[in-house]
């Protein structure tokens, strides 16, 4: 039993990069199918923003304007923000809380799954659903609402919304570590519905009371919706970087909270 | 890293094959150990300075009532929990070592498994985590899931769901398997089917740690049984040894002899009333029977049986509880 042989045995246990990549892709693939086939998820996460958009953007106010921007275009930005928030929060928080509380996450942790693959898959899938929502809103606006914009503008809007979904995925991970399987969905609703309202995602920001507008300044959803509106030219022409900075800070805080939750689960908090 | 199966050098490959048992030998022959391990949940003592070993190639059962600490022991060995004191070793190393996880498989008690994924998708995903997984058809065969390949998990019966969890434990072709209460909640037929599947695994040389509160299950599957109660191991041995440790025989009869007198008979450990009859537990039946038949000519309904593992177990855990208190 030479040392060389032992080293080779240990080497056998380390994965190649290709293998690791395969794991991440499969984890994301099955996470996607899991949610795609779940009526509860697709109905609430995909349908709500689409329904609201059809009702308020295409049926009711199609020929109005908000601050000089046509309503159907304006609402893609705001309901798009609402949509990516919901997709990210429900995808990460509810799933994580359920997996933790009901023992499934322990089965995965006991396996050789790289822990990061689990979280990465959830975030990737949230981004995929976010993309689907924005594409759907735009398709409807284009087909039925007379929404027109240069391709570059649309890609900028899509990119902003999908990238901007990350703070909400982080928030979802934090929530998932501190709620149980039954309390997660109502907790998410209790947080993200008022957050959406105060950020001007339903009633446009400029029509909100001054007090509420002040609250909005600390909400990542407000900042994301402003960034989205900027891309289509309906923003209030503020410094774009300020919005990204707030969202980044929010993401860092949420990831910190999530990390505490993660270590608490591993029981490694106090070494 | 070159994968070992691409090695063309037979001599080198042979060295690698022989190298694997070294880590077992390094840890005194045990595949997994708990060394004076204690674990608390707040003020609740789940395990108290427990010493326990899993030896290569055996099926060892951790047998105990609910709340005894069996699942805690398994989770410590899987690296899901950290001990408050003592050492946990799997394959000679730390259980949270990812390399160890490549060589173990676990079947745990789960409240909810993703229901919208199909059986083959669950197996595919878990197989991918491992370096050298079993082929999918072999996994399905070993778990008796051939016909359920495409079924969604949520559409399966309780027994079928357990078999999927079993498949996930063995899909990576692990050397060491942890089965935590594998047949709980199953009907008799489903239980026997799973037992047979476990026996087939054992025939292929796997090492298995099984936890259960079904005495029959430990007796049916295990080479060695460790009886655990209230966080302590109170007895250890083969199923036959465990049975032999307490009252050996059970005499059942309908008799006029008063209970107090019966208790004074030689070797009697317990006398119980069971409807119209009396149940006497004794080390040996013959001395008791000689006295009894001499005393009571009207004695009827006589049955003499071996005290099953059930009775041994109850006696052990009651004794254990008594000595702890």
Describe the structure.
The complex is a heterodimer of chains A (271) and B (325). By secondary structure, chain A is an all-alpha fold. Chain A has one domain. Helices cover 77% and strands 1% of the residues of chain A. Chain A contains twelve helices and two strands, in the order H-H-H-E-E-H-H-H-H-H-H-H-H-H. Chain A has a two-stranded antiparallel sheet. In chain A, a hairpin with a 2-residue loop joins strand 1 (65-66) and strand 2 (69-70). In chain A, helix 4 packs parallel to helix 8, helix 4 packs antiparallel against helix 9 (184-198) and helix 6 packs antiparallel against helix 7. Chain A is globular. Chain B is an alpha/beta fold and 325 residues long. Chain B contains 13 helices and 13 strands. Chain B has helices at 10-19, 22-26, 70-77, 98-101, 119-129, 136-143, 158-170, 188-203, 215-221, 239-244, 259-263, 285-295, 309-324; strands at 32-41, 44-54, 59-63, 85-90, 104-107, 176-180, 207-212, 224-229, 232-237, 249-254, 268-274, 277-282, 300-306. A six-stranded mixed sheet of chain B has the order 5-6-7-3-8-9, with helices on both faces. In chain B, helix 6 (136-143) crosses helix 7 (158-170). Chain B starts with 9 loop residues before the first helix and ends with a helix. The chains are: A mainly alpha (271), B alpha/beta (325).
Q: Give the end-to-end Cα distance of chain B, rounded to a whole number of Å.
A: 56 Å
CATH H level, superfamily name of the largest domain in chain B: P-loop containing nucleotide triphosphate hydrolases
Per CATH, what is the topology of the largest domain in chain B? Rossmann fold
User: Mean pLDDT across all residues of chain B, rounded?
Assistant: 84
Helix/strand class of chain B: alpha/beta
Helix content class of chain A: over 70%
Sequence of strands across the biggest β-sheet of chain B: 5-6-7-3-8-9
The CATH class designation of the largest domain in chain B is Alpha Beta
